[in-house]
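Notebook B, p. 112. Complex prediction, attempt 2.
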Amino acid sequence: MIKKILVGVIFSFSHSFVFAQSNAEEIAKYRQMIADGNPSELYEAAGEELWKKPAGPKNATLEQCNLGLGPGVVQGAFAQLPRYFSDTKRVQDVESRLMTCMETLQGIASQDVIKESFGKGLRKDIEALTAYVVTASKGAKVQVLAAHPQEKKMFDLGKKIFNYQGGPMDFSCASCHAEDGKRIRMQDLPNLTLAKGAVEGWGSWPAYRVSSGEFWTMQRRLNDCFRQQRLPEPIYGSEGTIALSMYMAKTAHGGVIQTPGLKR
Amino acid sequence: MKSQYWRLAFGLITSFVVNSASAQRVDLEVQKILGQSFQAKGIAGLDRLVQDENQALCSDEKLRSSKAGLAKQAQLQKVALAAIKPPSDGIYVGDWKSGERIAQSGRGSTWTDAANTTNGGSCYNCHQIDKKEISHGNIGPSLIAYGKTRGYSEEITKYTWNRINNSKAYNACSNMPRFGHFQLLTEQQIKDVLALLLDPQSPVNQ
């Protein structure tokens, strides 16, 4: 029902695009109109429930999960991710960290999440949990300096992957996201190489996508970018995807987090 | 099994590229991590992560604009230009109406597409073409009145044919896909897209 209304609103807006001064302006207006009813809230509520409900072979909750600010601290935790975790000896984004917590606290194998599809089963649980965690950083500033050597390494790797061309169309992330003021069709493309664009991109995902009626995490956003690049599929939570998130997050450092966002 | 095969092949091809590279270096660490971070899906195999010389050079921000990089770009452009085939029947200009449909379509070659899905040109994703189509991107230049402003000479026709076939013959690090080189579009499709730009009857030239 919500989706139908939203699609209706978007549809009526699309007619006025012709006369719009800018596409971004119209979308901003539209966001304002439904600011009180972002359907991400449904995912956030489901995530909070999953956080507190005993589950898995160990029948435990996630309430002792350490997202980087200490066991159980959710408030502001997303703002400082990705970061290096000494227990896993890895740099992790919010989704891979949640998988670690599920595995260590609840006994749910990360592989079971990785082999799932987006929006299904355990993957859907992680998506809801992600909605819960990121909402607790809404309005906070991105705090990702990549000071730890492993974080710096991931940033450098992320930058190289960002520029890595491949596939039958020669695309890299930079093909679309390295200049200001660019669009594909009517879709504005943030310049992810500079702070302003990086905040627009990194700071507004995860988001609820009205066109598909789904909540999309950053892992899913990246997945579909690579699909459109005509490249093979990035593995969920893989090092390459976390490196890209590190590149975006560090570039966005200091910017205000708007997620969960609302997208076309 | 198939994915393991590609992982192996990926490694082999990578080392081959490294050995044969002249100006550019393929970053082994990045290639290794990409090989571990991606999986084949549908028609999109891991072989798509293997770079040719052009992709490797243009992925290296520093090298591509260095003196050696620019020299390499010039050499790659020369090779690319020499490899473009003229139309087999000598006719360059196809049907602009079909060209408009091809320009509109962004379909094909993704892991959700079938192997026999006809590719579109995705032209409007990046270019303004027919001014009636307001939903156009701006990564590439506007092509409004393309023929009207440039003329319909043999020289312009051949240049346009080459540019659609392999834009990298003129700018090695252009953002435009190599439609002929990678057989993203058929010869007839390229003729039709060319007609959209160079047929005097095309709405582009009204």
